[in-house]
Amino acid sequence: MAHTRFAIYYVPPEGPLADFGAAWLGWDVIQGRIAESFDLPGLPGVTREPGKYGFHATLKPPFFLAEGQSPEALVQATSALAARLPPARCDGLDLTTLGRFLALTLRGDPHGINQIAADCVKELDSFRAAPSAEELARRRTPHLTVRQEAMLVQWGYPHVLEEFRFHMTLTGRMPRADIARWSERVTQLLPDLHRPFAVDQIALCGEREDRRFELIERYPLAG
Q: Phi and psi of 2, rounded to 5°?
């Protein structure tokens, strides 16, 4: 299947956490298909935006291919990068409120995992087409810092490198009054979160014509 954009994600390996994420968001990014969702009133509404991306953590944000680059060359470069990167781990994952959405975030020292993301952003940037004025405007929110604005101009996204925070999004923005209720529902359904938590692979994912993302290939980190 042809893809319109590409991204480098952390996608959890097949197992309880990946199964939870697919059922929670209603989309299985690994299989590239609709997943049977949890029977929770209101769930499709709070997961509509993150659902099209599937359960993941972004390492290099979605991008269009630069002129002269090809998906095949991106596959080769991603594989070569993964072969050079060492795995990294931290103490675990926690359910966290980020602004007005819920996500799983890192517990403990994030340095090693942050470095993996930074390397993905920098080492694969020759494949990224410069963002359009429309893309820049969409990402140029009123609360960007001077540094985040510089990141947006240089890397096409404001929350990379030292502005990066690893997170696996579970909901879109919601009214603050709803956060506690949805946090409780997530907590009741989450599988046991293994500790420590390791990022030992990266995933090349592509955006389909229906604007949903699917896994193209996983690459173990072997550096």
A: -75, 150
